[in-house]
């Protein structure tokens, strides 16, 4: 109930074309449901999965990245931290990004743990490593959203789950190896022929130390220097070996059903609630 009330309070004040609109709340039997703006394209996760064999056009990658950043920019300008950014919480309506699910969101300055969140919450590859490390001296910040944004940007170019995380869950593989790799500084490999400026941008976003990550206005500013038409430039011919990847040999296997959020993972909780859209 705490998460539902929190989500309602934040969605009431959210007003941006790239944030899903909140219309009200309804009760069916004993279940409360939020009434939200309809998104005809489903989740970004499903969209990427559906396009995994061909990848999506560069113009679409950059458009979706820009719109997701615009939604985060509005939140941060209004002192709101999303706290659970990943492609299942990003919807698409008429080819436009709509950020959703504010169950883990909160106003900047409120203590993460005093607000009732006793464990790290979210999906492991998108979580700020400082939170993932169970370090209660570190609080969820705007830079936590920036880290998640970097992972989303990479996924836009690859149409893959970072570190093949979802397939590892389906196979009941131990995800601790992934967690330890992230904490050790390992990140996914850039996809060959991705625009080098875009790669540089998302690598800045997923830096381990929050103070070394750009803020959202710096992210948006860097978008202005990226060519929206030409995906490849002279600086980027073969970049796939620049950073380490975890179990990259398994990264070709795609998951089939990615509409709903993942179940709890070791050491983490996923705080997303059951939302019905009418």
UniProtKB/TrEMBL annotation:
Please note every region of biased composition (Acidic residues): 258-267
Residues annotated as region Disordered?
234-267
Task: Pinpoint the Protein kinase domain residues.
Answer: 1-230
Molecular function, one GO term: protein serine/threonine kinase activity
What is the name attached to this protein's record?
Kinase-like protein
Source domain of life: Eukaryota
- What organism is listed for this UniProt entry? Rhizophagus irregularis
- Lineage of the native species? Eukaryota, Fungi, Fungi incertae sedis, Mucoromycota, Glomeromycotina
Q: Give start-end positions of Low complexity composition bias.
A: 234-246
Q: Which keywords does this chain's UniProt record carry? A: Kinase, Transferase
